[in-house]
Amino acid sequence: MFESLTEKLNAVFKKLRGHGKLTEENIRDVLREIRLVLLEADVNFRVVKDFIEAIRVKALGQEVLTSFTPAQQVIKIVNEELTYLLGGENSQLNLSGKPPVSIMFVGLQGSGKTTTVGKVARFLKEKKRDTYLVPADVYRPAAIDQLQKLGQDLEIDVYNPGPGEDPLTICTNALRSASINGHDVVLIDTAGRLHIDEELMQELQRIKERVLPKEILLVADAMTGQDAVNVAGKFNEVLGIDGVILTKMDGDARGGAALSIKAVTNKPIKFVGTGERLDALEVFYPDRMASRILGMGDVLSLIEKAQATFDDKKAMEIEKKIRKNAFTLGDFKEQIQQIKRMGSLDQILGMIPGVNKIKGIKGLQPDEGELVKIEAIINSMTKKERLNHTILNGSRRKRIAKGSGTSVQDVNKLIKNYVQALNMIKKLNTSGMKGFKREMLPF
Amino acid sequence: MLWFKKDMANKDKETKGVLNRLKERLSKTREGFASRVDRVVFGKKKIDDDLLEDIEEILITSDLGVQVTYRLIENVKEKVKRKELNDPNLLKECIQREILDILKAEEKPLEISNSCPFVIMVVGVNGVGKTTTIAKMANRFKEEGKSVLLAAADTFRAAAIEQLEIWSERAGCKVIKHQNGADPSAVVFDSIKAAQARDIDVLIIDTAGRLHTKVNLMEELKKIQRIIGRELSGAPHEVLLVLDATTGQNAISQAKLFKEATNITGIALTKLDGTAKGGIIVSISGELKIPLRYVGIGEGMDDLKVFNAKEFVDALF
Ligand SMILES: Nc1nc2c(ncn2[C@@H]2O[C@H](COP(=O)(O)OP(=O)(O)OP(=O)(O)O)[C@@H](O)[C@H]2O)c(=O)[nH]1
Ligand SMILES: Nc1nc2c(ncn2[C@@H]2O[C@H](COP(=O)(O)OP(=O)(O)OP(=O)(O)O)[C@@H](O)[C@H]2O)c(=O)[nH]1
Ligand SMILES: [Mg+2]
Ligand SMILES: [Mg+2]
Known about the structure:
By secondary structure, chain A is of the alpha/beta class. Chain A has helices at about 5-15, 25-40, 45-60, 70-85, 115-125, 145-155, 165-180, 200-210, 230-240, 255-265, 285-295, 300-310, 310-325, 330-340, 345-350, 360-365, 370-380, 385, 395-405, 410-430, 435-440; strands at about 100-105, 130-135, 155-160, 185-190, 215-220, 245, 270-275, 280-285.
């Protein structure tokens, strides 16, 4: 996300350390550095200018507390301002009102609208909402097909437009059909369009007037540069958007667009997209994002995610087994499945503070294909073997390798890893069970 | 962890004022892009700090990046000091010329040699316009009288295969495809065999969008490239990186990492029909020296132009 910004600010603050007092002069130096950092992070030129001005006023004003070092003073102010600019508070989807309630997804071409509709549908399904998907993109080749496939995967109904139906007709008919079939939430996927395309912007206006959506969400790419203000500003001006979803946060984009968009629309960023899979949607927390900018990493997000996906009942079972030192290869497999459910590994790694700073970390990234392999190997074992790894002699290992389409080395490696895990568990058992869940993550 | 409790009570008023001001200023920015430099220069007698700050804003908001912008401004200052430049009216030309020099060096149109087939592998991050650019290229090559075959090696994204198929019908060429979720390398293998058997001139391979930071996915891309090379020596003849003009500084990281993984031989810059300037390719050209092939200027099949440095620089200001 904001990795590089984090690093840069750290460097700035390091420079500050050691100065006794925060004078007008060294504030100027710091502000120049922060300005540079923000511009390199793609925050819009004007937004940066205003941000820097706000910091300057704060830094020289009375709010500066004497009980801090100069570095802490500046960090405090920058952190506060960033948090504020990014949104202040976390904001939920508004789904109140008489069903069906509709949400419209709008944005530039390729920003991730269709995928995000799928993600939000999945999110709502988990909340036991009866969702209905509406493909209102008749322009992009196979756009309707794309949404229908996502609906199929999620087992969520998708409106099926008749030949020649235009977007407005699609939305009208779909809404009627949602009422008849008793769906509560209708998600409308619109075609990507340029904010300066007046005709297509009017089409959105007409859809808005017809369906009266509870929410219009702007889907924007986190990698967007300086133009973010023009795009978000125009969509907001024409449609009055209610919120923003920032996609492709799983890359190394510094994500200054988040600040720019928030500054120009003053609408909350509600979710972030962190991958191509439909489970890669996270709630946006401005304070965490700001603390991430300041180098504290997004630890909270990580822990929450681990807890949400970790099946508590299974965890207790395993906990019991571990306490009895009876953690088998079968349990090992279940662990791996838990980890896989948490989402992609590099996504998880990205949330750990400092990981981005370690050189050569890329080579260390666990291979998701590797996990698939491990599962296959354990699947090829007999029940007896799974319960007791010590019986795994050479010929058994050869058979397992053959059965799972892997090599004997792969099997050996797995058993070695398992034995290591076993030892870790034994150690854990002697040192107590506290913090068990976190220890489970081998990274 | 925050150092302090949130103290937002009286911030609202304050920041609202800032936001309104910002909106006014932005509408000013939006009103015209045609000759932004001319406007800030208008009426100025000499090149002073104010004028240079306006220029800095124009360059930065075009996504040229801080480094390139600072360098360009420094050069101007240097020239002013040496009295080589003092007329504000020559400022635009002076900066344009520098940028032009950088881009001109990479203005190298793609030439399709007689390789039978000439294999183009198209790569890039998610949603930049790879598939659409392939359709546009296929259309262009067909119009030049070449036979074209497409390979649907994005087996991951929902309806990616169907999307390419519809385009291929419009462009009038065939697609080699497998099932959704199939191994992309297998698709590529088949497509090369098919292209050879059918005596095709140009084979274009569509790959799934992937973020350059995802190690596994970049490995997959390398594997695809290896298989192409194994089946047809010297291929792929072109590895085309598609970049979205709306992208900011991250495009540099994209270009670097895709180059590291696949040895990019060309760049196509899409979505220049919006208000984004795509200035980031100036840094990329300066730093990485990757030939600039095409620009995308719309969603239609004809909306692809051969990159022209002069036109690009003129559109920046
Ligand atoms: N890495 C990553 N990729 C994403 C994310 N969200 C969407 N994508 C990918 O971005 C590409 C474009 O997504 P789409 O959902 O088709 O975008 P769209 O806005 O509907 O595109 P148009 O309808 O053509 O305007 C696809 O390859 C998606 O898989 C994300 O959060 N992270
Ligand atoms: N305005 C404009 N839109 C474009 C241009 N090129 C592509 N698009 C649009 O951008 C969106 C994404 O294009 P695709 O060709 O699907 O992008 P992709 O890189 O193949 O996407 P993935 O395969 O999902 O990674 C579509 O809505 C295209 O119509 C362009 O030059 N200008
Ligand atoms: Mg779409
Ligand atoms: Mg594609």
